[in-house]
Amino acid sequence: MLDFCSPYLCNVGLGSVRSSTTTITKQAPTMSMTALSNTSGFKTLTLASAIFLLMLGATVSVSSCKGCQVPQGSAASSTELITDAASSTIRISSGRIAGYIDGGVYIYKGIPYAKAERFAPPQSPDPWEGVRSCRAYGPVCPQVERSGWQSDESAFSSAWNDGFPGEDCMRVNVWTPSIKDGPKRPVMVWLHGGGFETGSGQEWPSYDGRSLAAGHDVVVVTLNHRLNVLGFLDLSAFGDKYRSSGNVGMMDIVKALEWVRDNISAFGGDPSNVTIFGQSGGGGKVSTLLATPSAQGLFHKAIVQSGSQLRVMEQKYSRMIGSATVRALGISPSSIDDIKTVPYKDLLEAGNKAIEQVKALARADSFETFIFGWAPTVDGEWLPAHPFDGKAPELSKDIPMIIGTTLTEFCPSAYFPSLRGISKEQVDGILEGKWGERKDGFTKALRSAYPGATPQDFLDYDVTFRPMAARQASLKVRDGNAPVWNYIFSWESPVLDGVLRSSHCMEIPFVFDNVALHNTITGGGEQAIELGKMISTAWTLFARTGDPNGAPGLPEWKKVEAGHDYVMYFGKRVTLRDNPDSALLEFLSNYPYSIFP
Q: Three-class SS string for 63-108?
């Protein structure tokens, strides 16, 4: 399996920018990290998109936020672990639950928000008698084994928690500063990465919500839902009973948002102030929810991190995958219900083979989408249209958004040591193979955005996620009434001799204010912690007010406007730039993103 983070250098070329700039200057010794071993050499650049998927981690830290006030009387000042049921028991729609209090934060894990038969829409969970213990994470959706464990460096820096699999995986986890006081807090619902195929709401240390709850006075929710063949196998060709099967994974998320609406008040949260945020595949889920009628009114703000999903699957192809899977399993249409008892591994194997077969047909048809196969399907009913295909969805035009990427995303040099410090002549040869006669146009466009770029940067700088994010932002501004803020996370990790750069997922520990907790990917240095406080404060201010401005040290973050693509660069220098890479985006617009991977 190639992991996709279920789950993107600020000081490069920015010296000539004449705009407000904050420089983070505090320094502290970072933790000593094992040097990166010299792994396999670089073969071809076209292999990179697959290898990069090995980089999935995230990080968590416990730190308070300067400038954020926690209401007097909340438990956020305590460091005691309290586990008796009486201290944390609350009543939700299904019954009473007990969690625990850690560092003053009330924590509840593994709460059922739904149940479902295989391939059927989610239903409300069965109620229970007495007090249910909700102190440990619940099952994660079954998925292929994580290939990232095969890389010592990825395993070290990501520090995954793979959990235990189970098809009854619809669970939420909640962190809140208090369940006792009166004022209701903003709610932030995290959607994990991994495409729509892998991952969970607990896989990274960074997903821990304690720091956001304690230091920023918000209620944090993470969740698990059905993925891959269990969440997105389209069997609608086999009758009305299965008409929604191609989207049940997304239907689970909507059901979780309904659970938040109905129950979050018991945790001190405000159901009328809910922000959905997600990274990579989680950003794709956020993008899809913006175009989902049944999700309308269940959230009020949205953040897309390295996952601007513009197009999804079409039923022509998802039905082909469903039919090919059924044939491969030897199931006749008259016995279609037998698919409910097929062992998971056999089901997934048949489904993955079907995807490869149908993908060839889709390529012949020039069908374009970023993720082909296990992904939501435009069915004309539950999902009427592609999320951002030529226009932004009308039903979410009033939803404010933050949209961004990291500067190096799936960074080739992180996985191919031979690319580190590569010469210009060598880079020219690689770019010639990729761009052909358009190579000079590409290098000119990239250098216009980053005048100080090194030869290695021409391979490492992202040219896939950023164009989709810029396109999503421009459509949202053109077709909506709500503000949009754009960013590029350009801070480079010092871990493993700095080879990770600002790779895919690197911003997650900063968003969650978990830089120290996930120090295997951030290094946990003081500079990084300060940047994490700035970013997490901006994210939580956005959740609270709909505007990320006001974080200590953050320059004025202007919203995107027609003709002005303002981008906040979060790095060692925090800088706002106007249309920083317009020539590069213009060049890349002539080469649409292809089916991935």
A: CCCCCCCCCCCCCCCCCCEECCHHHHCEEECCEEEECEEECCEEEE
